[in-house]
What does this fold into?
Amino acid sequence: MIKLKKTWRIGKKRIEIEVEIKDKEKIRDWDTLKEIEIVPVSFTGEVLIGKRLEDCCAGQIVDELPDGGELGEVKQIWKQHHLNDMIPGTKRQFWALGGKFLKYDEEIKELKKYNLYEDRGYKYGWEWLGKPVPKQVIDRLLEIFSPE
It folds into this structure.
């Protein structure tokens, strides 16, 4: 496993992001349901404005990141690949839910409307599924977070 951390300063804001790139693991693919090997990726961060602790947010700060530049690139990768080894449903189920996560009971109700609670033998939420992160994305994370 590789843990990388980087700090950006934008005006009075200090943004610190940590990315974990874990060792390869075998998991069922969210698209094909076949066993594949993926590299799990996860992100956490912290935004501090000035020096007051009250002006801080931490954890899943992706929506606090700007859209442009290097941080915008990190934001895109975070949104697309964070916890890629902990997906509760298939790709079809995800799109049936409108590409967003709801409360579990609401998700089940919605999926049953589309006859997708069970997709090709996989019942929604019964095990984690995975989504591969392209090698060029991993390489880009290593480049962005490498010590300067």
Notes: The chain has two domains: 2-87+131-145, 88-127.
